Amino acid sequence: MEASVACIGGTAAYDLLRDGAFLAHRLGPQDTPFGESQPIFACESRFGSFYFLSPSFVNYRANIYALKSLGTRAVFSWSETRAISHNYKIGQFVVVSDLIDETHSRPRTFFENQGLGVVRQWPVFCPSLSNALMTALGDEMCRFSPSGTYVCIEGPRRETPAEVRKYAAFGAELLGMTLSPEVFLAKELQMCYASVAFVAGYAETGSDFRPFENGRILDAEQQAERAAAAVEVLPRVLERLIDVLHRTPGMCACENSMQHHIASGQIGWDWRTWFDEERPVSQNQPPQNPGASFPSDFIPFIRRPAGPTRGFGLRDDYPYEDHIQP
Ligand SMILES: [Zn+2]
């Protein structure tokens, strides 16, 4: 089985998988030049296949490399977050739109000391995949925010109140320990990456903030119920997302993110040669018809727009709003 979409979920999502929420076949850990990946599951839904990989705190590079090797073109992260901004409600979904990286000991690139990986980070998350996620959440009647700036902390310890004040001053609205470096690594392998986070609580600000809705305080039990309900909707949203992706002619430039390194001759067209000790670029000429190498289930939302291109394949007159339109 080959799938174009992969879901990286947290522990709660893995529990769903274990409890039979998806029809899943365990592929197991995959060997990569960066070590062994987490176990990967090949899953089936009504609208198509997808891969599932659960908490990726071990070897980020191996996980992303393994998904790419399996034919994945789009990675969707489903994770828990705690809100810094009290504008977000417990149980609410947020399609993450920007990222502050406060990690300090994780590998940030596939290309250490190679002069590669100069990759643009705006938009940080794939606009086409994010748009598809919003459609899927809306179709499932989920309450969601279309944007949120997420600060990724190193962990495993939690944040201090002073750190939360610092992150808030930076513009962070959500806090968690996932997303970095996954999103950056996915870009280096020219994959789409987007994230839905659900608010399970609030960051530690040093005050005793208690969420207040409809004239009463939400007690701890109600908060836990809402967070659990947010997890349980994952299978339906994921299934809907795959359906949306297969019928939405979106557009994005993700699969061109390394194009400038290819055009300058630093690396070849075949991404698998990018990690060879001696990269035989001269023997790695572009195929006469690059599209011919794409798998037959090439999903349509990756199509790029017609018209003049520049740099990363973006049109000269390419405002962000147009970029996310189907
Ligand atoms: Zn994309």
Describe the 3D structure:
- With 326 residues, the protein is of the alpha/beta class.
- The protein has one domain (5-208, 215-247): Rossmann fold (3-Layer(aba) Sandwich).
- 26% of the residues lie in helices and 21% in strands.
- It has nine helices and 15 strands.
- It has helices at 11-18, 60-69, 127-139, 161-170, 182-188, 220-232, 234-247, 259-263, 320-323; strands at 5-9, 23-28, 31-32, 35-36, 40-45, 48-53, 74-83, 93-95, 98-102, 144-145, 149-153, 174-176, 192-202, 212-213, 216-217.
- The strands form three sheets. Strands 1, 2, 5, 6, 7, 8, 9, 10, 11, 12 and 13 form an eleven-stranded mixed β-sheet that branches. The protein has a two-stranded antiparallel sheet with strand order 3-4.
- A hairpin with a 2-residue loop joins strand 3 and strand 4 (35-36).
- The chain is globular and about 65 Å long.
- The protein starts with a strand and ends with a helix.
- It binds zinc ion.
- The site of zinc ion has 6 residues, from helix 3.
- Zinc ion is lined by residues 126, 128-129, 192, 252, 254.
Structural class call reads: alpha/beta
Bound molecules: zinc ion
Measure the end-to-end span.
Answer: 28 Å
One letter per element, helices H and strands E, the order comes to EHEEEEEHEEEHEEHEHEEEHHHH
CATH superfamily: Nucleoside phosphorylase domain
CATH hierarchy, class: Alpha Beta
- Quantity of strands, as a count: 15
Overall pLDDT, averaged?
82
Brief summary of the model shown:
The chain has 326 residues and is α/β, with parallel strands linked by helices. Helices cover 26% and strands 21% of the residues.
